[in-house]
Design goal:
This protein is α+β, with helices and mostly antiparallel strands. Helix content is about 35%, strand content about 30%.
Length: about 200
């Protein structure tokens, strides 16, 4: 796919939840919640994972969005559910602009960028190019998108998915901030036009 996208799915089964997340950043990202121990486990499905796409045969997991057209998130949900053996009941579908809006809505995130990151893709718009410097810094939506998309290093998607999980942990921590919680209704209204959900 040309554009990268992000999806988060949440599925309930036997009192547990599974969350599934993003092709667009180059991976499918998920969440597993255990209501008994009240713990959350984050996992990733690499975008090139070969799976059965309902109605389209076997292909890479990220192609589900393209095959499905407007119903791409639903088809991706089915593919992930089949892979995990758990029906996906809910999802949140987020694209580049959605991600930027979310991070900006919570006021950005303080985060340590572990190395210089620079990459230019002629297929992307100029404001989607990646150019970050190593060090602790405040990432707004655009810089956060640059960070979670970067994969031009030795471990490629493996390193990227690890970075994405660490960044999502920082986002969750920021979301638990008292100020963020107070402003949550306003934040949800702000990002609503950019997000597709099934709840």
């Amino acid at each position: 796919m040309g554009r990268e996208r992000a999806i988060e799915h949440i599925a309930a089964r036997r009192g547990r939840e599974i969350g599934r997340g993003s092709r667009a950043f180059g991976y499918d990202h998920g969440r597993f919640d255990d209501p008994v121990s009240k713990t959350v486990h984050l996992f990733s499905i690499l975008r090139d994972t070969y799976v059965e796409i309902p109605g389209h045969g076997k292909n890479r997991i990220n192609t589900a969005l393209a095959f499905g057209g407007k119903e791409g998130p639903e088809l991706a949900s089915q593919a992930v559910g089949d892979l995990l053996g758990i029906p996906i009941q809910y999802y949140v579908f987020v694209e580049f602009e959605s991600f930027i809006q979310l991070i900006d809505a919570i006021g950005g995130v303080d985060f340590y960028v572990e190395k210089d990151m620079k990459y230019t893709d002629t297929a992307d718009k100029s404001h989607y190019q990646i150019d970050l410097k190593e060090g602790m810094q405040h990432l707004d939506g655009n810089k956060a998108l640059q960070y979670v998309r970067f994969r031009k290093d030795a471990l490629s998607d493996y390193a990227r998915t690890e970075r994405q999980r660490e960044f999502l942990k920082a986002v969750v921590k920021k979301m638990q901030n008292v100020t963020t919680l107070v402003n949550l209704p306003q934040i949800l209204n702000q990002i609503a036009p950019y997000v597709q959900t099934k709840f």
